Amino acid sequence: MAFKNISLSYKEKVILEDISFCISRGELLGIVGPNGSGKTTLMKLVAGDFMPSKGVIKYDDTDLKRVSLLERAKYRSVMSQSQNIIFDFTVREIIQMGVIGGYGLNNEKEVAKKIHHIIKLLDIEKLFFRSIQTLSGGEQQLVHFARALIQIWEMSHYETSKYIFLDEPTSNLDLKQEVKILDITKNEVKKGLGAMVIFHDLNLTAHYADKVLMLSKGKIAAMGKPSDIFTSDTLEAVYGLKVKVLKKPFRIFHF
Amino acid sequence: MISLRQLMNTKQIFWISVLSIAVIFSTIAAISFGGVDVELKNIFTGTISPLELEVLANIRGPRVLLAAVVGAALGISGAALQGLFRNPLADPGLIGVSAGAALGAVSAIVFFKDGLFGLQFGIFLVPLASVLGSLIVIGLIFTLTSGFTQSGITYMLLVGIALNALATVGIGFLTFISNDSQLRGLTYWMMGSFGSANWQLLIPTIIIVTIAIANLFMISKKLDIIQLGEVEAHRLGINIRLIKMTIVLCSAFMIGACVSLSGIIGFIGLVVPHLVRLLGGANHTFLLPGSALLGISISVLSDLFSRIVITPAELPVGLATSALGAPFFLWLIIRLGKN
Fold first, then answer.
1. Do the Cβ atoms of B274 and B82 come closer than 8 Å?
2. Nearest to A78 by CA among B220, B122, B30, B234
3. B221 contacts A103? CB cut-off 8 A
4. ipTM of the complex model
5. Mapping DSSP to helix (H, G, I), strand (E, B) and coil, where does residue A165 land?
6. Between B153, B227, B229, which is nearest A89 by CB?
7. Where are the domains positioned within chain B?
8. Per-residue b/e over B79-99, b at no fewer than 16 CB within 10 Å?
9. How far apart are CA B73 and CA B272, in angstroms?
10. Residue A128 contacts residue A92 (beta carbons within 8 Å)
């Protein structure tokens, strides 16, 4: 999945400028950067929510503009930072919404099997028949992760190109759930999924990401392996904060 | 082939069966009772009197059928609009769609009925103007609220209320400049009644409502996915524009056609979807048929109540539905506020 010389402007304000990178299958790309640096906008562009002012986004070898909505949905899934469900849907119904193509009407048994695996994987069986409205913020986030995962999930390994984009997926979660979501994502990446995750926590990024893209004011400030780009000089330049970087074990301290 | 089991769970199938039985019983009651009571069994025994036959075929039959069609249309369009706008307070009456339809109808009566348009379109002039009125209001709500975020739910309702007020001003102005014979017709629209049902207009209305309901059923699963938000639904491969267009057109045609025949019947579109959600759940594969069925029962029974409560006079049915619906609306707002 390639991103070539992407720029985005809105009312003469440049939001993203000359961004180029690619995400490969079996790779977890971490996106970091200060608030307002353009992380979520970048994810929206990759997801195809809107088109860039300049540049090309390619899903495999095809220009995103030529990929139909349904094909995009089969190719990549997206989990937003927050979601608000107005009516009283059950967890089961929400997860089913992630199943592409008539949401489970065509091959009911296979879909049921998939859902069973996903809820077991996330340990949310107890929530399955509950209303989404009665869940805590963290539990809701797990359900939305399950919905995003089932959209592209494969039981054994990913034979075709599939990607998952997560925008701060652990923002409402406690430590255990945070690790669970990221471990599951990492495990899917090992099975051949491509992942792009916006992180808030640099230490988590260093632990989970294979490659990191650091954004600052809409431009790429650094890109590469976490251990290469998380240097005190780069972090100070981007975040405006003095930090210490410990190499073994890899830790970033700001006090 | 899709089975019922794939669309609804056991509880929902149970409630759909109960609501279907309620439709049958309420319809039988509505046909049987009134100024002249009709013994339905006389039809089967062949002992029906000419008076009973006349009442059934030309007065009460079309009237009950109109009440049923309007109830189904209001119930299902309320459910579909609430789903589309992701707003539990969306109701064709509250957000001005019914008032837009009434304004269309009233404009046709005051300005065009005796002119060239009146000659060209005949009895279909008023229904067509009505559909146009509701289309304009839904289109305006849609355009004016398109940039609103999730927190814009209240604003969307306020835009609807403002449009409702504008349409009501229009109706008020037309009432003011109308002549005596026109005024009788206009008052009738404001109150709502099934009394003027006739087969000539009823049959096209039934066709419109049936086509619209069938179209809404077809998109019910996609309407569920829209509950994740438009952006998420788009990411899941849903053509949002097509779904919106289907709901807007179906609702506008149904409400326009119904309002032209029955006037404004308030609150059915608001109350019915909420009751159906409380019975069996929020998924639209259940909610849409459930709302159509409960809409029929409530509408038909409200009409029966309005016919028999002060016999031989008649209470406008719109008053009865509003008397029931307004307290419910208040309860709903308080409940939403507390949440």
1. no
2. B234
3. yes
4. 0.90
5. strand
6. B227
7. 4-338
8. bbbbbbbbbbbbbbbbbbbbb
9. 11
10. yes
DSSP state of B60: I
CA–CA separation, A188 vs A146, rounded Å? 13
How many other C-beta atoms can be found within 10 angstroms of the C-beta atom of residue A137?
Answer: 10
Given a contact cutoff of 8 angstroms between Cβ atoms, the answer to whether A75 and A67 are in contact is yes
Pick the more confident residue, B215 or B123: B215
| Residue carrying structure tokens 């403002």 | B162
Q: Among A86, A128, A149, pick the best mutation site for testing chain B contact (most B Cβ within 10 A).
A: A86
Residues of B with CB below 8 A from A88's CB?
Answer: 277, 281-282
**Tell me: the pLDDT tens digits for A14-43?**
899 999 999 999 999 999 999 999 999 999
pTM, two decimals, is 0.87
The HSE-up count of residue A42 (CA atoms within 13 Å, CB side) is 35
Q: Is the pLDDT of residue B148 over 90?
A: no
Angstrom distances, CA of residue A63 to CA of A2, A35, A60, B98, B204: 9, 30, 8, 45, 48
Radius of gyration of chain B (CA): 20
CB B160 within 8 A of CB B122: no
CA distance B298 to B128: 26
Q: Determine contact, residues B276/B294, Cβ cutoff 8 Å.
A: yes
Q: Tokens in use for A63?
A: 């220009």
| Interface mutation target, options B150, B227, B277, chain A, most CBs of A under 10 Å | B227
Fold of B4-338: ABC transporter involved in vitamin B12 uptake, BtuC (1.10.3470)
- The type of residue at B276 is V
- All residues of chain B having their beta carbon less than 8 Å from the beta carbon of residue A147 are 228
Other CB atoms within a 10 A radius of the CB of residue B108 amount to 22
